[in-house]
Amino acid sequence: MGSQFGETGVDVAGPGARPALHGSKARASARLSSCRRERGPAVVVVILLGPPGVGKGTQGAWLAERAGARYVATGDLLRAACREGTELGRRAQGYMDRGELVPDGLIIELVRQVLSGLSPDTGVVFDGFPRTVPQADMLASVLGDVDRQVDRVIVLEADDEVLLRRMAGRRSCRDCGAVYNIHFNAPRKAGACDRCGGELARRRDDDPATVRRRLKVYRKDTMPLIQFYLGTSARLEQVAADRPVDKVRDALQEVTGT
Ligand code: ADP
Ligand code: ZN
Fold this sequence. Notes:
By secondary structure, the chain is of the alpha/beta class. It is 46% helix and 13% strand.
């Protein structure tokens, strides 16, 4: 990992360092960044785990914004690389289209780059990373180099039936990547992005056969991370995500104290 991250003197707050929260204003300003200790400002590392379609993106972006943290979604970064036609994008595209994992080596390189660009005092919410035990090992070692660790792991859960339905209705903007759902969160104008007016399309890997493969891959390669993190000092929370977005948000707020 780049030295920039190492020079920040950041710290992952332990349970004792969590702020006492009183009221929403206090919560908003407390956020993750207030978990300070003598050693310097805090970087709290949060990982969102969960199957495809469970809402990691929707909740993760919100959580990061609320916490003043950086939202790092490897899927979004990979799709941007594909759109831009970079070397990484070209190498990753086939795996993504088939619903397979992009090889660890590529992902690790990508995440190293992101982390090396982090400024001091930045928390991180990871969505879609780590997805395999080698990726989790890499993250632990990168954080360990700067005397830090994963602080929280939040597991979002929903049945396959719910996930399949959600992904069937999911549409995303070709230009900015904003995500909609024609059933639950439709854009104001059908087929057009509220944010930038871009064309909405189904993600290439959201067809039912590919979705089923992604669910299998999740169970085989990513679910073991729950066990992995149970063996670390990270705080692990499970949140039922087969509910409307705001209800899941409330539950997240409760478990994270944000
Ligand atoms: P979802 O969680 O809905 O499957 P993502 O946007 O997180 O969607 O990921 C889409 C695809 O990008 C995955 O199916 C996989 O091919 C690739 N990908 C994203 N993150 C990783 C990762 N950490 N390791 C390997 N492949 C990844
Ligand atoms: Zn858009």
